[in-house]
Amino acid sequence: MDTNVTITSVKRFFDFDGNEIGYSAVIDDVTRFVPIAEGNREYQLIQEWVAQDGNTIIDTDVPTP
Amino acid sequence: MALIKVNNRGQSADFSTEIGATKNLIINGGFDVWQRGTSLSITTSNFRIADQWVTYPGSSGSGTASRQSFTLGQTDVPGQPNYYLRMDMTGAASSAPNIQHRIEDVRTVAGQEVTLSFYAKCGSGTVVVDPIIRQYFGTGGSPSSSVDITPNDITLTTSWQRFTRTFTMGSLSGKTLGTDNMHQIQIRLQLPTSATYTVDIAQVQFETGDTATTFEHRSYAEELSLCSRYYHTSFSGETTIGGSHPASYSGKVFSWCDQYGSSPDRVAFNYQWPVQMRDIPTVTMYGNAWTSARMSKYNGGASEYTIDYASGISRNGLGGYYDVAGTNGDFVVAYVEASAEL
Question: How many Å apart are CA B128 and CA B62, to the nearest integer?
Fold first, then answer.
């Protein structure tokens, strides 16, 4: 996997039922919507990023319908 | 009626006479499709250039990748191709610049004899290209280590030449795939370090057998459809993100804000990819000023409104209600791109 990508921040989003549906991640200065999908390249990059000390995914509120 | 000899893959031996044959395992080997734009400054590693092609400029390396047109009627490269790739490395790399093509599924042609062929030349002098064919097994779980095949180097000159390399892919016996569904074959063309140069490449083909056959020409529509399994943009006309906007409303996806006066305003947004994508894609949406995670009013000029998250992303499209404050019951538009690339 690519170690030269810069991830600045990651937020975790939920559906109305509180299920995790994906991330909003700032990757190389672009905000991208990343699904929970093992085969998604950015999802894998986020897993590597959060595994490093000091990196935390920020939870957002569960939306109201 | 002419007889067509058929090989053990159900394909004719003379593929060039077939319509719809898929002997070339490379997608966009003719560099026809450039959905991200046709002239791109290479700024980072894993930088996407022509569809299905990636470049790593190497440490300190930089340059431009562009689609170049063949002169009509030229005969240096047969078949009257439209385009070729130009890699103009203007900043010398201190380590391993390369151009890559990734073929989904490491099981492809495993254990078989294959032939890589392409036309290439350089801008001046000579440039040595080191091809590496990598079987990559992915990550997650306990995947096997990558296996590299290293055919002989290729020396480019200032004249178009066809280069071919035949070799046998590694067996998968005893190998293990990762759990991330990213296993692949990488066709890597390693470029020189510590130098600046221009490299032109055309008609890249990777096929089974010990012979480089005639380059398989697919129509633009066929090639674009194959590319769209991995990347799609709503922009038409090969618009570069951040560049000039397409004419009129071309490439914008229209939606409707249906909660006028509520807080927040909610936009019902639905959009379908032209073909099912390889996996659930990463989605990026841009407003009229090309800021990511934004929408705009259809007539709102450069004004943009923040999207928190694009829900309902699937391999087929995206759709859902998005909180986009400030749209006030109006039509809204966004440019959309989706990537499920390897």
Answer: 18
Residues B224, B28: Cα–Cα separation, whole Å: 8
* pLDDT tens, position by position, B106-147: 999 999 999 999 999 999 999 999 999 999 999 999 999 999
Give the chain A residue whose CA is nearest to the CA of B283: A33
Contact A21 B179 (CB under 8 A): no
CB contact under 8 A, A41 and B280: no
Its pTM stands at 0.89
Say how far apart CA B95 and CA B106 lie, in whole Å.
26
Residue B340 forms contact with A (CB below 8 Å): yes
Within 176-235 of B, beta carbons closer than 8 Å to A belong to 179-182
* CA–CA distance, B14 with B293 (Å, rounded to integer): 49
* Chain A contacts in chain B segment 283-302 (CB below 8 A): 283-285, 292-293
Instruction: With beta carbons less than 8 A apart as the criterion, state whether B144 and B137 touch.
Output: yes
Chain A nearest C-alpha distance from B338 (Å): 9
- pLDDT per position as a tens digit, B281-293: 999 999 888 899 9
Single-letter residue type at B99: I
> DSSP secondary-structure letter at B221?
H
Please write the tens of the pLDDT for every residue from A13-65: 998 889 999 999 999 999 999 999 999 999 999 999 999 989 999 998 887 77
